[in-house]
Amino acid sequence: MSDPMAEIKASFFIECEELLESLQDALSDLDEGADDGETINVVFRAVHSIKGGAGAFGLDALVAFAHRFETVLDELRAGRLDLTPEAVKLFFQAADLLADEIHAAREGSREPEAAEECLQALEALLGDRGAAHRADAEDETEAADFQPMGLALDLDFDFTPEDASPASFTLQFRPDGALYASGNEPLQLLRALAEIAEVSIMTDASAVPPLDALDPEENHLSWTVQITGDVTEDEIREVFEFVEDVCQIDISSMPKSSETPLPEQPELESEPSGDTDEDEKFEPDAEANGPGPVDPAPPPTNEIAEIATEAPARTPDPGPAEQQAEAAKPSAAQPAASNTAPAAEPGATVRVDIERIDRLVNLVGELVINQAMLAQSVTEAGLPPNSAVNTGLEAFMMLTRDIQDSVMMIRAQPVKPLFQRMARIVREASSAIGKDVRLKTEGETTEVDKTVIERLADPLTHMIRNAVDHGLETPDMREAAGKPREGVVILSAHHRSGRVVIEVSDDGGGIDRKKVFEKAIEKGLVASDAQLSDSEIDNLLFLPGFSTADLVSALSGRGVGMDVVKSSIQSLGGRISITSEPGKGSCFSISLPLTLAVLDGMVVNVAGETLVVPLSSILETATLTSEDIRALGPSTNVIHLRGAFVPLFDLGAELGYRGPKRSYSGDVVLLTAQEDGARSALVVDSILEQRQVVIKGLQQSYGHIPGVAAATILGDGQIALILDPADLVQTASGNTRAIDISLAG
Amino acid sequence: MTALALPDRIDLATVRPLQASLQCVATEDVALDASSVTHFGALGLQLLLSAAKTARNAGHRFEIAERSEAFDSALTRFGVSLEDLQHLPDAEAPCH
Question: How far is the C-alpha of A410 from the C-alpha of A60, rounded, in Å?
Fold first, then answer.
């Protein structure tokens, strides 16, 4: 049985992600100087909504953190706190910790250790007010022990100030059943109200039927809340902002001067029914019952019966249970909808389980294969090209392609959340080593396959840390070089010829090639007399075990890094490259396929087998002549291509389909490039076609097969292996010379 | 007298099964143990109010014997007194 609360909770955490995203956006805006009220409101609302939701699920640690954060933001919103760069920095830090708190709440793990420290730093911004707010919050929780409601206490507390004419409102609040279904809880709303003003709360239980007639999931309660204090109607409405579609709220204000309800309250306590002044505004029964619950002296035991009989006369629209149930029904049909609204853009979106999308992607893959098979049979049937079947098939192929693209688009997600995570890495990394770093992001809306995004996080983190730690100079060095003390790291994403290019660049000192070269010699990675081009030296950074950092810092320099980055990017079908200019900075560029589900491949024939070579790895194709082939060692050949020598590999021999051939003259080679720029020539028997293939993973069934990336199904139903040329070449023997037995004999 | 322990959280997810176990208030005296309640939501309040009403109509004793801090705190916030949730015929205070 699925637990509805667990589902609602899961959707709360998804909403938290969205809220955190808008929080980060708004903080970035603040950081860039936008200190308008609306941006601050967005920040406040995001934290407030997270707190509200967390409260509904009893996530106390998260509520406590969000509450203290929110208190500081509230001061900012009220204009009582200056928005200094230090404050923004702290807000960013608190937002990061809020993300950690949410993570901890979701995973049930320990809350982050730095939380208290950060909150104290935040509260220090408020000076004495911070302490007062905390005291307030503590009183609020301690009041629970105390039998009467906090009213009397609050009065003493707030009535001492000389300002004696607080606003006064009466709030009628009746939730619909859908309010509960969407994970909200009146208790939290009432608590939130009590946080912003003094409240006297009274439950109207008149509509609650006996047990046998009760639908426990429908609401039959309503509340009358008398609100006094320094609070506006808007602030009250804000508490109910996210539930206004699933409840009925009526706020009426009371004139300030004609009545002084507050002094009446203590009197009411001693004499519950003897109220006079307020009868004009609150109906007599409301007042008579009102103090009952908040009265320290035990009221009559059958008071509830009194409420039950008298209440219908006093509330304007109490509504019998049936009416309420009816009212709740239409909104109950869309339980989660009400909760998705906070701070999100109004654009209509649907949340779909990723498994469903994957199933759709698989089905589309099957459709593509099926369409290829159909095309093949039509060709084999020898129908004329302009026949109805052929024209129909063409239209069908175009539709298939459109469907395929559209489905892939569903899996595509903007890189923005990933970039926001990187913003945090920059903040943490720069403060750890005392550099001033600003992260600029470009092309955040660029969309990439969800899996690619997930698997990019680790390599990007590494690269960002490297840029901050190694790429940028210290502030003093920058100043000496005539640059601003604050370094800039730019993270950008854009589409380029069917691939996604993500770049991490910095305005630091560039790669110190001399140092890199010396380090590589010292580590025995290259020969001391090796002649390397600039780009070859840059590429040394990707060698396993390479690190130029003289000291191992907290961030990097342990010699694991860029080689791991490179292999992660390669496993995504991507490439990574470096450009660097001394004194001006470096740029690491990652090029990735848009999706992991289909790829453009070249279909080739090798020893009677059909294979697919990813088009992205092929530089060019050529037909060999005997002059092109040069022997190198006893069993290997290289080919001479435009002044360069490229090792020759025989795919048939490497894959074990046959032995090396006697002569490769007249054979076709595919010239492939590896990520490090090294090239190799793969011999195939013939090239069949170039087409898009659907990737079918082999990993699950066969594990990693050297040289083979995956498989696909061709139009004729045949299964073809998709090769991974870079991997193949790494493990290849390079044996392209048949042993001539006749000569030996 | 039947003793019933309330679950930790009384909310949308738990009110229906709890309603079933509370049906006995119509036929016998019941004492609830709310000492382990960590979350007492409005639907829980409604259910206990309904149970108290049922017990009152049937003339049975309905008592909340043990209470947790969270339970009391929620009651306070709802503006409901403990007496609203109980029916204690023998200890009935005189009406005024």
Answer: 36
Complex prediction ipTM? 0.91
Orientation of helix A388-411 relative to helix A354-380, angle to 10° = 160
Say which residues have a Cβ less than 8 Å from residue A662's Cβ, sequence separation at least 6: A738, A740
Closest-approach residue (CA) in chain A for B74: A187
Instruction: Return the SS3 of A724.
Output: coil
Tell whether A626 is within 8 A of chain B (Cβ): no
**DSSP strand pairing (B30-34 vs B62-67):** parallel
A237 and A312, same structural domain? yes
d(CA A653, CA A658): 5
Quote the CA–CA distance of B89 and B92 in Å, as a whole number: 5
* Closest-CA residue to A661 (of A681, A692, A635, A642): A635
Q: Using the 8-state DSSP alphabet, how is residue A663 labeled? A: -
Measured CA to CA, the distance from residue A23 to residue A423 in angstroms comes to 13
On whether both A652 and A545 belong to a single domain, the answer is no
Is B77 part of the contact surface with chain A (CB cutoff 8 Å)?
yes
Interface residue of B9, B18, B50, B68 to substitute, partner A, most A CBs within 10 Å: B50
pLDDT of A51-84, one tens digit each? 888 887 778 888 888 888 888 888 888 888 888 8
> Which of the four pLDDT bands, split at 50, 70 and 90, describes residue A567?
confident
- If asked whether residues A430 and A554 sit together in one domain, one would say yes
- Closest CA relative to residue A502, chosen from A577, A427, A406: A577
Q: CB under 8 Å to A252, separation ≥6 — which residues?
A: A169, A170
Residue A503: band (very low, low, confident or very high) from pLDDT cuts 50, 70, 90 = very high
Residues A477, A480: Cα–Cα separation, whole Å: 5
Q: How far apart are CA B12 and CA A296, in angstroms?
A: 30
User: Which residues in chain B are contacts of A210 at CB distance < 8 A?
Assistant: 26, 50, 53-54, 57
**Domains identified in chain B and CATH numbers:** 2-91 (3.30.750.24)
DSSP A725: H
Distance from CA of B57 to the nearest CA of A (A): 9
Both A444 and A547 in a single domain? yes
pLDDT at A325: 41
Please check whether residues A254 and A398 belong to one and the same domain: no
Q: What is the CATH number of the domain that holds A341?
A: 3.30.70.1110
DSSP string, A394-458: HHHHHHHHHHHHHHHHHHEEESHHHHHHHHHHHHHHHHHHT--EEEEEE-TT-EEEHHHHHHHHH
Domains contained in chain A, number: 5
Contacts of B34 in chain A (CB under 8 A): none
Domain boundary among A125, A145, A165: A145
**Which pLDDT score is estimated for A493?**
92
| Boundaries of domain holding A423 | 415-593
pLDDT per residue as tens digits for the range A182-218: 888 898 888 888 888 888 888 888 888 888 888 888 8
A553: confidence class by pLDDT, cuts 50, 70, 90: very low
Average pLDDT for A620-632: 87
